[in-house]
Amino acid sequence: MKPNKFLYTTMLLMATGAVTLAQDKKEDDKDKKVVAEEIEVVRPYKPILAEAFKLRRSPNLDDVKTYKARLNYSLTDRKLELNSDILKLQAQQVADEKATELVNNYVKGGFGMNATSLLEAYVANGKDEALQVGGYFRHFGQGGTIRGQRFDKQELSVFGRTILDMATVSGRLNFERNGLNFYGFNPDAPVDLNPDPAKQRFNFFEAEGEVINKFTEDEDALSYAVKLNGYLWGDQYAAKENYLTLNGYVNKRINSFNLGLAAGGEFGSTRDALTSVKNNILRLNPYIRLQANGVKITAGINFVQEFGLYESTRLFPAITADFTLIPDYLQIFGEVKGDVNRNSLKNFTDENPWLNTNINIRNTVEKMSISGGIKGTGGPGFGYKARFYHKTLTDMPLFVNNFDDFSRFDVIYDFGNMKLTGIEGELSVQVSDDLRWTGKLNFDNYKPASESAAWFKPQMRLSSNFLYNITDKISFNASLAVQDDSKAKIYTTAPVPAGQYVVPDPGIEQTVTISGFADIGAGAEYRINKQFTVFARANNLLNNKYSKFLYYQYNGLNIFGGLTYSF
User: Are 95 and 546 spatial neighbours (Cβ–Cβ below 8 Å)?
Assistant: First the structure.
């Protein structure tokens, strides 16, 4: 039965297919005969998706097995603290910053206009918190268009510093040589009165040592310091000077008070062909200081004993006060003091190197000095200070041209009490490590006791410095120095009796005005790499041939440059 059924079914399907093919062929032939043109129908595609089939699977509710985690317990025996105070937060430790590679040594050389020559060198042992050793050398020389206008200066210094268990010890050795000529001339004179300028040379040897107690956090600890300084000085002629200075202090803090004693001694002598002066000073300064809650007051006395050629005993007040009104922003300070200031040939030649021979040495007594002002900051990188002062000075030293040789200067002293009143202001602005500016301004009003004026003492002085690092490789710096007019005295007749320390006589004196000046300087540096830097400097850009002392004219525009090697 089954084979017959399969055979019948197969025959039926084949017959049906044949009929269908015959009908399609006839219909096609018929269409070809009836339709004469082709029609194309375009319509958007509409996809048709079949319905999704969902699988329905029910969870097995017969699985009732329970998971039990294995737990381990550790009991800590800890005391219960009943503390309601706020606990201190522990700061997270910051990662160590990468150490900066320091350059400790350099050599610098340059040359330029007016036979300018420069050579510098600095060496040190590098970063060591317990020991610092190094040395420094500098040479600078320059000439001019005036006959004999030439000077050169050399400096050599060796220093060291070490930190011991109880104290810090430091010391240094210095040598200076300063060579120059007495090239002073009078431009108004009909003939050249200085055809062959004389030469001068100063040699200076100095040794210094200092011991300071090591810092301790104990506020009631005993603090102390001792400093010893000595030097030998001499010129090309017969002038010689030697001095030894010993200073020290000890301080003990008791609660808000400090009890202390500062003491010092200055011992030395000055000799020349016709003069010899022994000049010794002893000082004792006991004090008590109150320091608490923004108030710092120091009250003491300054006992000064002069002995040697001049002997005197003097007692001065030593009072200082400092009040903080706004921490870090505004402080008020004041001071009342007195002292004896030692004069020496070394100090005189540092200010005026064209000094005459056989200079008379006397000390200047600062009878009463009162000063006060404000200081503080106006924010990060901005600092200021302003103060006024009034001083009474006895035997104030002044320079005056020698009658026989106008190119040399004598030292005279104003007989009596000179009054000095002044105002001083300082500003400091540091926007960043790449931009800094500082400025200082002084106004001084001198009222001499015997002299007609304070010779070679200008009333106004201004100084300013500017630094700007444009990029990591290029930096720019500038400086400004301004000085007001000053007065000078010349003798029309030789003073009698002969000598430098004489009572002024207006009948044989003439006052000359020295014009003020403005000196602008600028410089630039270009860092080629870590080792080499090129620099250039220009001084007196306004080309002013000014004078600080009568008959001594300074150079005009001067430009020099060179190379620095760091290692």
Answer: no
Which residue do the tokens 């002997």 mark?
311
- Neighbouring C-beta atoms of residue 406, cutoff 10 Å: 19
The answer to whether 370 and 419 are in contact (CB under 8 A) is no
Q: What is the pLDDT of residues 504-524, one digit of tens each?
A: 888 899 999 999 999 999 999
Burial of 435 (0-12, 13-18, 19+ CB in 10 A): middle
Q: Which residue type does 561 have? A: G
Contacts of 455 (CB under 8 A, 6+ apart): 398, 399, 400, 486, 487, 488, 489
Q: Which residues contact 53 (CB under 8 A, 6 or more apart)?
A: none
Give strand pairing partners of 151.
Answer: 142, 180
* pLDDT score, position 298: 96
Average pLDDT over residues 488-513: 82
Distance CA 64, CA 57 (A): 18
- The pLDDT value recorded for residue 319 is 97
Indicate whether this model's pTM tops 0.85. no
With 0-12 / 13-18 / 19 or more C-beta atoms within 10 angstroms meaning exposed / middle / buried, residue 348 is middle
232, burial (CB in 10 Å: exposed 0-12, middle 13-18, buried 19+): middle
Nearest to 504 by CA among 427, 449, 557, 440: 449
Beta bridge partners of 370: 336, 390
CB 204 within 8 A of CB 233: yes
What is residue 1's predicted lDDT score, i.e. its pLDDT?
Answer: 45
Q: How many residues does the chain have?
A: 567
Instruction: Report DSSP letters for 469-530, one per residue.
Output: E-SSSEEEEEEEEEE--EEEEEESS--SSSSSS----GGGEEEEEEP-EEEEEEEEEEE-SS
More confident site: 504 or 98:
504
Q: What are phi and psi of 453, to 5 degrees?
A: -160, 165
CA distances to 87, 287, 399 from 276, rounded to whole Å, are: 74, 36, 20
Name residue 126's amino acid: G
Q: How many Cβ atoms from other residues are within 10 Å of residue 61's Cβ?
A: 6
When pLDDT is averaged across residues 444-448 and rounded to a whole number, the result is 96
Residue 268 CB neighbours (<10 A): 22
* E strands in 380-432: 382-401, 409-432
Burial of 322 (0-12, 13-18, 19+ CB in 10 A): middle
Q: Which two tokens stand for residue 331?
A: 């402080």
